[in-house]
């Protein structure tokens, strides 16, 4: 249980990256599957070569960002379709990652010092204090992301995903925004990979496979339940979604399912999260919310008196563009 | 201020779909000029505005803002000088962002965007003052998402966003066409006020002859990628809607096409104008525009 929460919190960093591309930039980035592994592999190599685990973690972040940069350049400069650009980078990175790992499919870090070693030695890993420390770390990442998205640069990035024509007319190079966003997103993914490798004590060439679905599951699950009215709420929802997802997995494993079934469960979870809101029960609820929002607008049209609008935007369902 | 010299643009050149959209357009707009642009569907009005804004790069010709040659600059690099309002009310603002966030984006038009906070207290104060001028009560709803606003409110906001950071040139492409007559009228009024107050150099495309004559100090009429004629302030003051319609009619005789275009639509819309031309099929459905100030021509893009 606690282990599930801990994993959920570390994976939440990856999910925040997925949120940045899929939701903020409205860009279906599939690089994630391998940029996660790239982060893990490069961090593992730094540690195995005697580097500090903190430096290794930073290296994971940077390497992830570079992976994102490749996809971004393929898309914006070579004008390759975004989905395909991600697939191409992902495929190429598989070979690169194997090279980075010295041709081995698995690198063990069990006897090495990692960023989690102090936690373990203090006997905090697997305790509530340990979880709280991890939570603090993840919340820090979230706060930085929130802060960024509210700056002038961050608003431009949000608008790029929302209305590219408009933001171009205000002088923003949308290609530049996509490059920045994809780098940042995959850097977070790489960071998460570096941390997971250290947490579980190994990096594996296959550890990133299906990661995009895990990330999406966290984003959709979290925002479906906790909402996404503002950036602050949306990023919090992503973290909670990631933890929730891990708990579901933990329960599924305890119920006797195989670890190898997890990819199936992830995909089914995403499908459910996408389909459920379309069912009539949810629809009615959604319509009520939309209706209320509409009424508030109407009220405002007729009387321009002060009217604090707290209207919730309709239930977030995944943007279907891909 | 703005000079367009012999600009040409052909779409799908060398194919069966070849379309000459601009066929040597030259135009000089002085500072403070407010030019209205009329012409039938497909005349090249939008293409002209798009080449000025940088959405479309012309095949040949030259576009200058002041002394700067901006012909080949992409849209986002021209935004420093040029601001625009789209025809579609949904296009001018970002729906999932709030009113104040949209204003913050607009305020930094064409300037670098760094890591300082987008909406600060000082800026919010400024936005409130600006929004008050719209008289729509939007100043009380700074934190509301723009996606919740009506088309008219959004278009008024777009207009404010495009203008409050003092662009050198303002481009309006049928920006009231998607609104109902009442809202269109309101947005037109706001346009008039803002352009006058800030003395903005403006190019405005409209299908509404009356509006084209009433607003601005110059008028140009386009047809098949060329500027057919131009009225200066004096001529414009004397011209009537009937004169403009006569010009449209001349075109059709030249082209020999029995088109049911803007001119025809307008004739039906204005029962006060007794133009009888039995050779042109005037359908009753076209009179839905009434005699209101709304653009009566459906958008052809
Ligand atoms: N992006 C484009 N791709 C291909 N053809 C285009 C494009 N934009 C415009 N055209 C063509 O160029 C010609 C001029 O179009 P334009 O949109 O400039 O006309 P307009 O005067 O704005 O007409 P309307 O009154 O219908 O808006 C038309 O024949 C149109 O089909
Ligand atoms: Mg047009």
Automatic annotation (TrEMBL), chain B:
Membrane topology of this protein: Peripheral membrane protein
PROSITE patterns cross-referenced by the UniProt entry: ABC_TRANSPORTER_1, ABC_TRANSPORTER_2
Entries under InterPro entries matching the protein: AAA+_ATPase, ABC_transporter-like_ATP-bd, ABC_transporter-like_CS, ABC_transporter_ATP-bind, P-loop_NTPase
Record's compositionally biased regions (Low complexity): 289-301
Superkingdom, natural source: Bacteria
Pfam family, one: ABC_tran
GO CC annotations, alphabetized: plasma membrane
Entry keyword annotation includes Thylakoid: no
GO MF annotations in UniProt: ATP binding; ATP hydrolysis activity
Major location category of this protein: membrane
Taxonomic classification: Bacteria, Bacillati, Actinomycetota, Actinomycetes, Micrococcales
Record flagged with keyword Phosphoprotein: no
Keywords: ATP-binding, Cell membrane, Membrane, Nucleotide-binding, Transport
Region called Disordered, residue ranges: 265-301
Name assigned to this protein: ABC transporter ATP-binding protein
């Amino acid at each position: 249980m606690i282990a599930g929460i801990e994993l959920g919190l570390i994976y939440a960093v990856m999910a925040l990256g997925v949120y940045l591309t899929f939701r903020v930039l409205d860009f279906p980035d599939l690089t994630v599957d391998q940029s996660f592994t790239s982060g893990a592999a490069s961090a593992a190599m730094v540690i195995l070569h005697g580097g500090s685990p903190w430096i290794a973690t930073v290296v994971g972040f940077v390497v992830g960002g570079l992976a994102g940069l490749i996809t971004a350049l393929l898309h914006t400069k070579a004008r390759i379709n975004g989905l395909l650009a991600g697939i191409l980078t992902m495929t190429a990175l598989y070979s690169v990652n194997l090279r980075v790992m010295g041709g081995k499919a698995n690198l063990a870090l069990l006897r090495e010092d990692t960023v989690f070693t102090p936690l373990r030695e203090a006997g905090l890993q697997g305790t509530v204090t340990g979880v709280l420390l991890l939570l603090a770390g993840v919340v820090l990442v979230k706060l930085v992301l929130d802060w960024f998205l509210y700056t002038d640069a961050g608003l431009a990035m949000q608008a790029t995903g929302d209305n590219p024509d408009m933001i171009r007319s205000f002088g923003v190079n949308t290609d530049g925004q996509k490059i920045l966003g994809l780098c940042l997103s995959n850097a977070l993914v790489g960071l998460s990979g570096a941390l997971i490798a250290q947490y579980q004590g190994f990096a594996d060439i296959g550890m990133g496979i299906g990661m995009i679905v895990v990330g999406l599951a966290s984003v959709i699950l979290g925002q479906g339940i906790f909402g996404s009215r503002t950036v602050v709420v949306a990023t919090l929802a992503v973290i909670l979604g990631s933890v929730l997802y891990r708990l579901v997995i933990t329960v599924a494993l305890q119920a006797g399912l195989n670890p190898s079934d997890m990819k199936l469960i992830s995909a089914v979870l995403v499908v459910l999260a996408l389909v459920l809101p379309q069912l009539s029960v949810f629809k009615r609820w959604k319509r009520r919310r939309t209706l209320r929002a509409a009424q508030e607008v109407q009220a405002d049209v007729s009387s321009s008196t002060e009217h604090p609008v707290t209207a919730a935007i309709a239930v977030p369902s995944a943007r279907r563009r891909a | 201020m703005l000079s367009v010299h012999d600009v040409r643009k052909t779409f799908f050149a060398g194919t069966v779909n070849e379309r000459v959209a601009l066929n040597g357009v030259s135009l000089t707009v002085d500072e403070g000029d407010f030019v209205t642009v009329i012409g039938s569907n497909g005349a090249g009005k939008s293409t002209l505005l798009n080449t000025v804004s940088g959405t479309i790069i012309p095949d040949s010709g030259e576009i200058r803002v002041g002394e700067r040659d901006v012909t080949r600059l992409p849209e986002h690099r021209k935004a420093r000088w040029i601001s625009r309002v789209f025809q579609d009310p949904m296009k001018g603002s970002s729906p999932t962002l709030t009113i104040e966030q949209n204003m913050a984006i607009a305020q930094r038009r064409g300037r670098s965007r760094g890591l300082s906070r987008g909406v600060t207290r000082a800026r919010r104060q400024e936005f409130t003052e600006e929004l008050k001028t719209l008289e729509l009560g939007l100043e009380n709803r700074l934190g509301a998402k723009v996606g919740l606003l009506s088309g008219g409110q959004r278009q008024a906001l777009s207009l404010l966003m495009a203008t409050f950071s003092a662009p050198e040139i303002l481009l309006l492409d049928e920006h009231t066409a998607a609104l109902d007559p009442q809202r269109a009228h309101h947005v037109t009024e706001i346009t008039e006020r803002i352009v006058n107050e800030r003395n903005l150099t403006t190019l405005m495309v409209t299908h509404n002859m009356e509006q084209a004559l009433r607003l601005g100090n110059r008028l140009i009429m386009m047809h098949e990628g060329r500027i057919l004629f131009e009225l200066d302030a004096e001529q414009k003051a004397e011209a009537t809607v009937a004169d403009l319609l006569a010009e449209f009619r001349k075109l059709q005789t030249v082209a020999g096409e029995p088109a049911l275009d803007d001119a025809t639509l307008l004739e039906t819309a204005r029962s006060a104008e007794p133009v009888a031309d039995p050779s042109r099929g005037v359908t009753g459905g076209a009179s839905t525009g009434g005699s209101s100030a709304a653009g009566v021509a459906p958008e052809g893009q």
